[in-house]
Amino acid sequence: MNVLFLCTGNSCRSLISEAVFNHLAPSGWHASSAGSQPTGKLNERALALLASKGIPTEGYHSKSWENLPVTPDIVVTVCASAAGETCPAYLGPVLRTHWGVEDPSHVVGTEDEITAAFEKAYAILRARIEAFLALPLDQLKGDRTKLKTELDHIGHIDA
């Protein structure tokens, strides 16, 4: 199972998703992340947050969806359209779902407010990834409609 976490810049939310998924996923499962307009660098706060949670990030980098090493089975967009952000539409023949999360890297405020925004984004993404990994995927893989329904439902889980 290959999962692609996709957003525009591939520097924060998709990175967090990729790292958390790979940290929690069983053997044979793999996540990658990419962006439609990658920034070319990873968000330092996101990297520090992951390190504080004991989640490795070595080897991760901001990359374009045009240079993926494998075709994903599932694409999860994590951009937050509520903030006027345009979500890229991956055009490959894959199962797609949307798990919008506000971008903590755009939060302006005190150090505590910014830290809280990163913690909230992490908590939401982790809860959703844990719910995804708890699905009975052996049963669902033969029913794409039901799997999509379950994945879409997970996108509404809040931390």
UniProtKB/TrEMBL annotation:
<dbReference type="InterPro" id="IPR036196">
    <property type="entry name" value="Ptyr_pPase_sf"/>
</dbReference>
<feature type="domain" description="Phosphotyrosine protein phosphatase I">
    <location>
        <begin position="1"/>
        <end position="135"/>
    </location>
</feature>
<dbReference type="InterPro" id="IPR023485">
    <property type="entry name" value="Ptyr_pPase"/>
</dbReference>
<keyword id="KW-0059">Arsenical resistance</keyword>
<dbReference type="Pfam" id="PF01451">
    <property type="entry name" value="LMWPc"/>
</dbReference>
<protein>
    <submittedName>
        <fullName>Arsenate reductase ArsC</fullName>
    </submittedName>
</protein>
